[in-house]
Amino acid sequence: MLKEIGFVEVGQPFEGFLLIKSASKGVASNGKPFLTLILQDSSGDIEAKLWEATAEDEQTFTQETIIKVTGEITQFRGKPQLKIQKLRPTQPTDGVKLEDFLEKAPVEINELEERLTQVIFEMENPNIQRIVRYFIKKYEKELFLFPAAVKNHHEYVSGLAHHVCTMLNIAKDLKRQYDDINLDLLYAGIILHDLGKLKELSGPVTPSYTLEGKLLGHISIMAEELAQAAQELNIDGEEVLLLKHMILSHHGKGEWGSPKAPILREAELLHLIDFIDARMNMMNRSLEKTKPGEFTDRIFAMDNRSFYKPTFEK
Amino acid sequence: MLKEIGFVEVGQPFEGFLLIKSASKGVASNGKPFLTLILQDSSGDIEAKLWEATAEDEQTFTQETIIKVTGEITQFRGKPQLKIQKLRPTQPTDGVKLEDFLEKAPVEINELEERLTQVIFEMENPNIQRIVRYFIKKYEKELFLFPAAVKNHHEYVSGLAHHVCTMLNIAKDLKRQYDDINLDLLYAGIILHDLGKLKELSGPVTPSYTLEGKLLGHISIMAEELAQAAQELNIDGEEVLLLKHMILSHHGKGEWGSPKAPILREAELLHLIDFIDARMNMMNRSLEKTKPGEFTDRIFAMDNRSFYKPTFEK
Amino acid sequence: MLKEIGFVEVGQPFEGFLLIKSASKGVASNGKPFLTLILQDSSGDIEAKLWEATAEDEQTFTQETIIKVTGEITQFRGKPQLKIQKLRPTQPTDGVKLEDFLEKAPVEINELEERLTQVIFEMENPNIQRIVRYFIKKYEKELFLFPAAVKNHHEYVSGLAHHVCTMLNIAKDLKRQYDDINLDLLYAGIILHDLGKLKELSGPVTPSYTLEGKLLGHISIMAEELAQAAQELNIDGEEVLLLKHMILSHHGKGEWGSPKAPILREAELLHLIDFIDARMNMMNRSLEKTKPGEFTDRIFAMDNRSFYKPTFEK
Amino acid sequence: MLKEIGFVEVGQPFEGFLLIKSASKGVASNGKPFLTLILQDSSGDIEAKLWEATAEDEQTFTQETIIKVTGEITQFRGKPQLKIQKLRPTQPTDGVKLEDFLEKAPVEINELEERLTQVIFEMENPNIQRIVRYFIKKYEKELFLFPAAVKNHHEYVSGLAHHVCTMLNIAKDLKRQYDDINLDLLYAGIILHDLGKLKELSGPVTPSYTLEGKLLGHISIMAEELAQAAQELNIDGEEVLLLKHMILSHHGKGEWGSPKAPILREAELLHLIDFIDARMNMMNRSLEKTKPGEFTDRIFAMDNRSFYKPTFEK
Amino acid sequence: MLKEIGFVEVGQPFEGFLLIKSASKGVASNGKPFLTLILQDSSGDIEAKLWEATAEDEQTFTQETIIKVTGEITQFRGKPQLKIQKLRPTQPTDGVKLEDFLEKAPVEINELEERLTQVIFEMENPNIQRIVRYFIKKYEKELFLFPAAVKNHHEYVSGLAHHVCTMLNIAKDLKRQYDDINLDLLYAGIILHDLGKLKELSGPVTPSYTLEGKLLGHISIMAEELAQAAQELNIDGEEVLLLKHMILSHHGKGEWGSPKAPILREAELLHLIDFIDARMNMMNRSLEKTKPGEFTDRIFAMDNRSFYKPTFEK
Amino acid sequence: MLKEIGFVEVGQPFEGFLLIKSASKGVASNGKPFLTLILQDSSGDIEAKLWEATAEDEQTFTQETIIKVTGEITQFRGKPQLKIQKLRPTQPTDGVKLEDFLEKAPVEINELEERLTQVIFEMENPNIQRIVRYFIKKYEKELFLFPAAVKNHHEYVSGLAHHVCTMLNIAKDLKRQYDDINLDLLYAGIILHDLGKLKELSGPVTPSYTLEGKLLGHISIMAEELAQAAQELNIDGEEVLLLKHMILSHHGKGEWGSPKAPILREAELLHLIDFIDARMNMMNRSLEKTKPGEFTDRIFAMDNRSFYKPTFEK
Fold first, then answer.
1. So what's the pLDDT on residue D30?
2. A33, CA 20 to 30 Å: which among C283, D41, D248, E58?
């Protein structure tokens, strides 16, 4: 069986299918053009150079193309590189699908859908329930495909829904410790808080920031969408105001992108649960790739810390 | 003629009409109730105590009532206080009007209206022009009455329109130095940037923060209003996106309340012009009350600095 | 029935038993000595002045004495004050007990003990289990009486154990979301993290900081105690090192008092759960005293924010 | 006609004259020496390598020499590089002049001189006028040649005078909005504020920091020069003190290099106008090189932001 | 013998001579004027009220007058206050002198003079020596009378010279550990670094900030004086540049008022020795007033810390 | 005689013995393995590549091996590199010793031992003296071999003892200026403050951080050791508490790794003396390698400053 690219070792040969994550042209010191390709499967990615690239190559080997490649794993400035010996684009008969080359949430989409349906069912406040239903319907497709971010945490297919569902579970559990929590508000805040990412990011595969994303950001995008939804649904209670506040304040403070700090218990909790799930996701995925008794790579979004995996963990 | 309350001196008698800015009840150590009144005219305000206040007093002397008062200026913990000898509410025959007791912009409302009309007339981009017209019409009354803030700068009747018109003048002048400026964008940004204050604040007289103001803030309120206006007017060009960005970014950075820092030349300029006009307003009004060769009171919003007035100024 | 001191209103008479929280002597402008007493029951506290206090008064009305007092609620500088008409120390026949005048955790001590016993029973790692047992035994009395802090959060009798038990419950719930968590480490970290407070604070009633607390702090005190326990129990595995790290890092970063930031998943989680429970405790107790549609007092330890209670909450 | 070096594209041949901005020697892995040259004309610069450089080459191709070069534009690590095929130093018969290879202010020197003369003429305060005249005379040559900085803003020939003149224009315009401004003080502050750069920097071509610049900085250098000028001119009024304060405080605060924050209205304004002109210069020059619908390179001195050029700009 | 005002206790009578540190007029609630006096001797100060003050009192009891007073120590808001029973200005026959009422350095002026003379004698670099001699001569009187600051450290008569001499001793000792130190530079930097205070402060008795002090600060004042001295003495070596740098950088960084951070070994050392002597002076003087086993008052300039005096200290 | 590696120049041949500081394997673009060696003697280090390394080479040329090497100094990306022509491991007959290749303190070990012995002899407090003796005995070997840090300051053999002895000398000198200093406490604090480094670092040669060092840090390690020592020695006075505080607080504040800021005069002084000696060590060693009239390399741990060496220094 073929080895995944995230687990090859320097010196080994490689043969298999890979997705082109990005392709950029350069001109070598001998004056000949070459392509720098980042190739990926669901386990990770690797850099490769295609020397003396023809004009045809340039048109063939573009972003989001799947290729068949034979080569060897070498090392360049301390990082593995794939030395290409042979490559070709895939053909229909190869039977490979884009989604097989993307990292995915560890939970199936239909499970995530079920969890959301159930939560909406549990809501008691009809205004809040109608607003949440409106958005689930509006984004029924993207919501279950988009990542939660371009990098750092939950940056994989279905990452957004995975993030939301884990947060919903934590919220439900916290209600048992702190009975005063208004679960309708908290559930709705969790489901809506990051929906602006569906417009801030370009798509589920090789996502980047859109112009709207750069100029407005997902927080303001979603606050606006919520206002329009409430108008359309003809809902005007205090709930709408509170949900807007929760979206605006979920990053916790100005330095982190929120125009208002939380001044509602459920807004503060939304921020804290978001914080926990993002950090657990980053730590867990780093620790998975780390051997007992060793340290993870530095995690930039966690103050560049490197975490220790105890010798008695597996 | 009667002296204004902002210019009385300790030891002098006082007789005249004053507006109650706030009234709060206390109980003295002898167990009797009393009222603490903040009394103002257009020149400033002063504290006064109404000892042994009856239930009737309490109902008569409330916020925004105008009274006739006779007394003497004393001093309490280093600050002047009005010792009340006689007081009564005004009668129709007194012929006094609320607006005479409020600080006002040094420019008349109709001049401010004319300036705005002229700027809109100069605009070339029809989308931008229609959006601005929409808001001028929507808020034709409040826009010319509201202050620009509860405190710090332009905190007087018509303060918002005064702030906007000065900024428009500066923008026009800067265009002569930097020809690349898109004046339509900059003008529109200036006119719209603080309109959210019309909902963030409670009104032109004795303004305070509304619930919406505390939970959302004027920046997000206005971004949402702009989205609704564009939808209503059926305008969907890049201009709308850019104007939203200008509103969101006009405080310059996250710590100062903007969810996005400016990444458009005209957004950066809007922020800088806003900064200059706010600071000039604070400095000028403080220096007016200061004698040559002395220092102003500390200005909290300018890092608590105290400014020097040269001996050769008048 | 007698009203509690936390719920009296200005103008009302008061008669009942109160505990002296602090007593300090002053000399009035007439040259006579007086006592400033802070008087409390389990619902809150109030200031009172005992004018013209005799030397005998001074020896009678000292900290932690319970008194019977008759008086009236007046107001001084915006805060309620108890005007004393009559007072005397309690007699055995009054049948009052110190503990009735102290705020207490909303959970009974035996419930807290049971929860801890059960958690220790669930532990699988024998080294960790033995260490935890050692401390539960060592502090079997204080652990269930001390507050978790002098002020801010869980600052009431049994506050420390209440804080620990809520955190344990949250930890157990989070394990269901994140299966990789080492629950033995996390449980132990939660139980041990604040035990240094038993030496940092002077006691469960009117607690203050000890000299040791001021010079070393509860974090270093506990790290040292853990080292001694491990030596005594003859345990020397990696678990001891990790538990020490968890104690040292539980404040999250240097500015907040931790000499090391967390670099172990369970240490990071310990910090986050501590953060959540402290914040929920502060918000909930402030919101309880707030009417729907109003804002709480400012909470100093939460960046001085004031939280909103929605109109639809009870 | 020859293409300018700032506008060539990878893959194109190049032939023309270029100025050596810097030259440094290295030794290649084959043990042979080579030269790294940064070559510029008034449109930009490019790196080039002269392999197997002889001792004579080293003495010929030095900083500020103009050369004739033939070659090809290649790419090295994502940046264009000039592959040298032929090169020689210029000869008198080539008819090229140093100034043709330097970036220059978009305004002619005599226009800048006229503007300054006119401003001095408008001054009413004789002390201030004499001091300004003194410095214009003292530095009549350098003032119109030096850049305003080594990098970031106005870093071109005549940049300092260009910066000063634009600021003077803005000051004059602001006076119309804020009549209280003392224009003599403000004009003088603008003209003098950066004159210390004439000693802080090494010269108008390829400027670097002098030893005096590194140890004292242009702010303290100029404060000292002003003191000496006042002494020489026998002027001792408050104006001298205020002008010194304006120079010392024009960076706005300690973190930005000013030993005193502005506590004079005109000092604060000087700082704000300086801020605006520096930022406009950086944004405008970056946007000029950017196509509509795209973002500029990151501007380090503006918090590393990248600015958007609207699609409807030219 | 008379007790000193810094050591009286509440309830005691007081009779003696005191210096008026400041006098300010108020109007009491009964409409009568009164004077608030701060009275001091060399041990400390105390507040006193002179009720129903006549116009004559106001002219008699002014700042820097010495009075004879009889009264009693009472307490007002937790601080001691002197209740005046009798007071009169001193007469020639009282035989009291201003200097007896001021706190003084613990070392005699002639000792300080000798120490400085000796250090100058040890200098080997003639340029540095001449500059230092110039300033010692120029300020031969003030240098030995002024305090080193208005508050915080060495804020007593001869405080500046005391600070300088202690620093010189430390410098000499450090040379034994670090032989590379250039002692001439370091000695000169120490002697000159704070001389700007002679113009920044108003005088040795009840010092306050001068206008020049507020607008320029002692660092820039002294840098300018040094430039003028060098010109007058016709000295132009690198030594002058380095001494200027040492003066400019002695506060260590921008936030602390230095326009340049130290980039010369002796400049860095000057900063560090200044830091040590200031902190030792603050701690020692606070600890002197503290009993063993107790904590000092909070020291504002040391991050508001309160220091512990061990039980085994005397 | 052979030149030391810290003083070779590009283009020169090299022949001599060097110690392998680190060795790491790579794979070249031709697929062949190579070794990157960092080679050092007591004067500095240099990088070298061993191309086409065999499996035997890999086992032979490992960290802490001494080799004989012939080659030439070339330059790679602006840094010198040793081009290996011949190399072999040393033989017994070469007569070279590991210690000759390590940087060492400029003072001999026996001098450092004597200094410590003498200081202990001077101590008057028996508890403090016994504790210090205990640790000198416990670490009699490591204490005189370990560096004070992995990098930055005193990062050489015997660096820790050198650092301690210089600090002791400074402490003794400061006592002459500030007689109130408790020299026993200060001496003990200096000797003990960094002993935790003996467990935080892996050893005197090529030191790195241990797991214990990363998880606990030398401050907490030493606080724990001190507690155990006191228990073993049966000492329980306030001295132990104060010494623990001094160890915990010697980094000065939370951001710098101390869980408590100093609140004892001797703790503050310990911090300041540590600060001075670390900074002097960094500056002096950088300036030694710098020519008069030039600047040192940037010193990262001193805010990245580069220091000037006056032209009149040698």
1. 67
2. D41
